[in-house]
Each structure stands twice: as structure tokens, then as C-alpha cells.
DNA sequence: CAGGAGGGGCTTTTT
DNA sequence: GCCCCTCCTG
């Protein structure tokens, strides 16, 4: 351990060795944060003889959790039992244990954004509200806001919205489902309801560490505080300059006011940057220093001066993409690994132009996110079958698959089924079993419904004898879904079939790696998985991703594209000063990902979907970057 | 009454 | 460019 500690600078060492009481580690970009966190956990176990079971570490993504797991494993040279998870996954696990205490069955489904929108649309149709007057997306934002802040529905002023909120939650309860924010909120509720459970976890997790603390929301903050209250060994790590999730309810306040919440806090600032060149760091610091709302700190470094930041002013977005492609070709010729190159953009749809261009230039690339695998229709369909088998009350999934592939059970029929269920206070799934009582449905349709129900029942019965892969195979065969995809010979169906095959393969891996896991475990993991989790660092491909996804990563060479007013900062963030500052932080995050070389590009014309090309303005943040660290990229020809 | 075809609308970021 | 909704057909 001493050997390890010797590798750290004095501040880092202090961050590892102060194990008692509340600690705030303000870790600037590239200051060796991950190393400090992993060493800290290893130190607790090895030098302080803390039982690994008594440590909880919360990360922002599953990917980060996985990396931390393996790093600690390497440091300790053995298996360990530290809980390293995201907030959502931590809460899901806690709820699997104690949910029944607050009226949730433990096979609850986890609803993602799209499932949530389905439920909201159901509410609107039930309540006869025009979706044009209140858009589902807006309502989702209202609902999430309430839950993220642990506020109550009664705080909603609009009668209509308050009503939707209540009906929405009632439906989730009927479906035995929780949305993302419920996961956190319900655990807080559980802790408030059952002191024994809270005490159990307080006793269990004597040492708590929360990474990316600047991106926690109110609910997560309260949860953390409850857990840490007894032993008070709470270490939070973050950087207010990298807070980029306020739109998801994150409160930068949580990190800025930590010392007020815990007056005896040890504050440690990690301000030496080991990642980027001086010029890159200078640009990043200059940009972010324009923010009012931050803890002041100064990053410094001993690193090389490095190349100037290359700024390219393109006539249009196609030229921009071509510039990036050509620069990448040049780099490749110089022997640069393509995996060390990343292209960042503000919004997902920007990836398309780069993809098209890279294909013509034959540049291998990998897009993180965009068309998210687990959100593709065919994948969601297969998973919906599994979700119904796991939790037949899950009406969103049931509705999704009852007519996929087509069983001639359409909209009208489903309306009748829902109405019947509503009237007799039973679930949709139960209605399927007494469909003969609904005379309004013709006998042919009733027969088809009964066949469907029989198939699901059979799958429910047999699931216990199979692993997840075998079950899914049974599902796609019995349901006729696989053959329906095979029948058509369009390109689209081919891709869908390929995707389903890929899903099946991943299930096979899952079943092999985690033989003890059940269907419930699998579905939970898949529901909480993010794009970045599935991304593997490759040496062969250029990485394309949003600025948000770039957080926590680093690359030798970075392209920040679409450096325009309206994209960076995004036009929807320009009214509000706080949101505007967040856009600046987003840029800061992007710049600080680069180790050696940074390109920034701006397209004077960009196709907006409807009207043809529209003219753009250079980002106002451009003028915040000191002239002397930049140069022009015009000399490409 | 299911389901395909065609028109209109809209695109931030994500656990 | 894609998704959703509507309208029309079978």
C-alpha cells in the first residue's frame, strides 16, 4: 500500500488517507480522480482493515462502476465485496429486498422514458385531455421534476396536471412498475417507513463514497444523507465545473453547499492536471472562468505546451464532416490509433453526417448512443415479452406485444379489454383470461386472445427451468416473432433480425457469466444500462459521441464539432442564465477530454430538417478562448 | 375492425 | 430523416 501511496501527490494522498468523517474532494478535470477513489477504497480495506461489505461506492454510470470494480480487484489482488453501483442500480437492489414493506412487489418492472410516455398517453386518453394542449413530454418533465425533488403531486398548481400526475402513479402501481425517479424516491420512502431497514443499511454501509457528486439531484442527496447519518463517513467527489445534468434535476448546489451540510468537512482540492497540454488547459480554464456560479479554483499543470487548438470554419456541415474525415486520415497516416480519436457533438443527430462521410472515406468508427440498441423497436419487443413473463401486470409491455407479430388484435379490441378491466378492477392480463365475458368482442378475436394468453401462461410456467437465453429463444419461436421477421426480405427486417440475434447472443453471454441470475435480475440490468456502458475502448475505431457522453473519458485527439450559436450553447438553453452557464460547462468538459490535440469546427450552414439549409453564427464561447492558443485549420488542401 | 399507406410534425443532453 | 397519427381500404 505504501508503494501505491508513494505514487500520489500530497493532496491526492490526503484524499486517500483521511477516512473518517465527511470529506469533500473537489477534483478538477484530469486531476487523477479515479485513481484517488480506487486507492482510497483499497486503502480502507488493506490498511484500515475495513470489511469490503461495509463500503458503498456510487458512480454515475455502470461503465464507471465496472471499471472501478476491476481496478480495485487489481489493487487488492483478490475478489472483493464492495458495492459499486449507480444510484439507480443501488436503489433497485435495495427495493428488491424491501419493496414489499411499501406495497411494491419485488418483481416490479422498471419503466424507461418511452414506457413512461406510453403511460402518460394512456392517462391523457383516459382523462380526455388533448395531447396538443399538454404534450406528453412536458408532462413527463413535470412528473420527473416532482419526483427528483421529493416534492409532492399536491404542489402542482394546474388541476389538470395534478390529476394526470395522480392517475399516472396509480397506473404505475397497478402495473407493478417504477419509473427511473421512483427508484430513488421509493427507497427514501422505504427508509422513512421502516427504520429497521434504514438502520440495517446505515450499519452495513459505514463508508460511503459518491462520485460525480455535482450531478446528484435532491432525491439522491437526501438518500445519501440518510445513509451516511449514523457513521458520517461520507466522501463525495466532484467538480462543480463539470455539472452538466441540471435538466435531469441535478443540483450543483449539492456540491457547492456540502460544507454547510457537514460543517466538520475536510475539503481537499485536486488542482493539478495530468491529462492535457498547457494550451488545452488554458483554453478550458479561460472558458469556464466566465461562469459566475462556481467555486473558484485554478487548475495548473507541468505538462507540455502542446500544439495550438485548431479552429476550422467550414462553409457548411458537409465540409465540416469532410474536414474531420481528412484530418483523421492524416493522423492515421502518421500512425495514430483511431481509438485515440474522438468526435464530439451537442446533439445526436449530428452523428449522421459524420457517419456518412466516414463511410465514404473508409474510416472505421463507433457511435456511442444515437440509435440506442435497447431502445430499438425489435429489441424492446423481445424484452417486452420477457417483461410480461416476469411481471404479467406490466400492461405497457403487454399492450406492446399482444399484436406483435400481428394476431389481429387491434386498437378497438384493446379498448374493450381495458374498459372491462377498469370496470372489474382487474389487470389487463387477467382480462385476457375471462375474455369470453366480453360479448362485444367477436368470437374469432376472443379465440386469438385466448391463444395468446395460453402461450404467455405456458412461458411463465416453463421459465424457471430455463436460463435467460433459452427462455428468450422459446419466446421468439413460440410467439412467431422470429419467423415474422424472417418472412419479409426488406433491408429493414434483415437489420432487425440481426439485432435480435445480437440481443440473443448477449443473453447467452449473460447466462454464462451469471448463472445465478434470474429473469428479474436480467431485466433490471438491461433497464438500467446506458449507452456508454456498452462502449468498449477500441484501438481500431474513431469514437463518436455527444458531449454529455464524453464525461469521464479522455482521448489523445478530440474534435469538438458544431461550435455554433444554437448548438453550443443549445438554443433551448439561452433564455436562462443558469442553463447558459451549464452549456459553458459542457464545452469545458469537452475541451478537457483532450490530452494532446484539439480541433474545433464550425459550419456556417447547416441543414435544418424542414426548410433547407440555414445560416448559423459562431458560438459566443469562441471569443472566450484566448487567441494565442489557437490557430486556423484552413491549410487542409 | 385491423393494418397499411401517406401526410404532418418535430428534433437537447440521459439514468 | 424519422416517428406518429390519421384516414382509407380490404
Summary?
The protein is α/β, with parallel strands linked by helices. It is built from 28 helices and 17 strands. 49% of the residues lie in helices and 12% in strands.
Computed CA radius of gyration, to the nearest angstrom: 26 Å
Task: Tally the beta strands.
Answer: 17
Strand order of the largest sheet: 11-12-10-13-14-9-17
Largest sheet: 7 strands, parallel
What is the strand content? 5-15%
Measure the end-to-end span. Answer: 54 Å
Helix proportion of residues, in percent? 40-55%
Output mean pLDDT.
89
Low-confidence stretches: none
How many helices? The count is: 28
Structural class: alpha/beta
- What is the approximate shape? globular
Keywords:
globular; six-stranded parallel beta sheet; 637 residues; alpha/beta; DNA-binding; seven-stranded parallel beta sheet; 12% strand; single chain
Please characterize this protein's 3D structure.
By secondary structure, this protein is α/β, with parallel strands linked by helices. Strands 11-12-10-13-14-9-17 form a seven-stranded parallel beta sheet, sandwiched between helices. Helix 28 (577-592) links the parallel strand 13 and strand 14 (594-603). The chain is globular, with a radius of gyration of 26 Å. The mean pLDDT is 89. The protein binds a DNA duplex (15 and 10 nucleotides) through helix 5, helix 9, helix 19 and helix 27.
